[in-house]
Write a structure and sequence with these properties.
The chain is built from seven helices and eight strands. By secondary structure, the chain is an alpha/beta fold. The N and C termini lie close together (8 Å).
Amino acid sequence: MAKLWVKTLNISFNASGAAAAARQGNVVMVVDVIDMSTTAEAALEAGVLDVLGACPDQHNVPVTVNPEKIGYFAGKKAIKSETGVVIAAEPRYINNDDSDVDGINKVVKGIERAGAKIEKVVSNIGREIVNLVDLENKVLVIVSPSGGAAFDAAYNYGAPEVITGTVARTNKMKGSKPAKIAADRAIESALKCRSGITIVSSSSNSMEDVQAAQVIGQEIIKRGFLDMPLDEE
């Protein structure tokens, strides 16, 4: 019997919403404007190989997260590509000494267990990250209590793909361009995975994230994702 692919678009909130979307089999786009997904966008512009998000140590969320697993996956990807891993964490976790990894020990443990090299630990500061480290061909793990936790949850609950999007100005984009790029990325991922899309505002208490998720959702609708003919196998 032919399998019908139904295209859907949802907006959800927090790590719990990311986990629920993953269980439904949707591509999950994490939106954390200040700063996780904007950091990710700047890194993508700078030629990063891959971006992942992880929950900080001791940060409590109502769903399962596994930052060590995220670190291990990042490490294995880095080894396969013969490169290193960069960690971006919240500014409060970073002192002048790069060896201070308070709050990201689980991610570090996963990377080290994979046998990969940690190139540098820097602050999660949005588009300015490109001024802190050379990201070209590196694997980036962003550890944060909102966007990182949502990404971590979606990944660990089996989302076919977890991506990021922002509406904030980046080093190469301004105006509505970031939202349009995010919409295109979500559609491309959904077409590849033959799934629906859930845009996750990483914090329901952040108006920036809530509004950004809505704007990206509108861009996806404008592009006709929901109007495309249904495919059959």
